[in-house]
Amino acid sequence: MKKIIYISILGLFLASCSSQNSQEELVSLRQKQNELKQELTKVNQQIASLEKTNSTSSTKKTNLVKVTTLKPTVFNHFIKAQGSVETDNNIFIPVEMPGVIKKVLVDEGDKVFKGQVLAHIDDVIIKKQLDE
After folding, report:
1. Integer Cα distance of 114 and 94 in angstroms
2. How far is CA 122 from CA 18, 83, 104, 105, 129, in A?
3. What burial class does residue 99 get, using C-beta atoms within 10 Å of its C-beta: 0-12 exposed, 13-18 middle, 19+ buried?
4. 120, 105 in Cβ contact below 8 A?
5. Of 27, 30, 61, 96, which has fewest CB within 10 angstroms of its CB?
6. Left (φ > 0), alpha (ψ -120 to 50) or beta: where does 65 sit?
7. Tens digit of pLDDT for each residue in 87-106?
8. CA-to-CA distance for 114 and 106, rounded, in angstroms?
9. What are phi and psi of 100, to 5 degrees?
10. What is the largest CA-CA distance in the chain?
11. 89-96: Cβ within 8 A, 24+ apart
């Protein structure tokens, strides 16, 4: 019988301790719930303010894309560059007969080929020398 009394007293003691712990736990959970509700209201207020600013900025009429018709115009943009040019082959053209140049058949910078006539020389003096 003593065992039964001890067991029942021990059971009541444990039950009373567990109810205090559960009440304390319940109080702490409610405090956390209140804190989370406060944070939720703050976040909802921030979202509402952001949506309000976005809605006011989107109601403004802005032209994001502009279309214009194209017209032919003069393109007046130039690039100036300085540099030097080196050739692979420098050619010296010896004069076969002296004389005064009457006509030049090529311009500076033109491409020339082997055997092409570049200029006409006044050959009157040479012909007189040959006749003598």
Report:
1. 14
2. 131, 38, 12, 14, 13
3. middle
4. yes
5. 61
6. beta
7. 777 777 666 667 788 898 99
8. 14
9. -95, 135
10. 169
11. 93/118
pLDDT digits (tens, 9 = 90+) for 30-74: 899 889 889 999 999 999 988 888 766 655 666 678 888 889 988
Alpha-carbon distance 9 to 3, whole Å? Answer: 10
CA 102 remoteness from chain centre: 61
Q: What span, in angstroms and rounded, lies between the C-alpha atoms of 11 and 19?
A: 12
Which residue bears the tokens 């010896």?
A: 94
Instruction: Look up the pTM and report it.
Output: 0.30
CB 100 within 8 A of CB 126: no
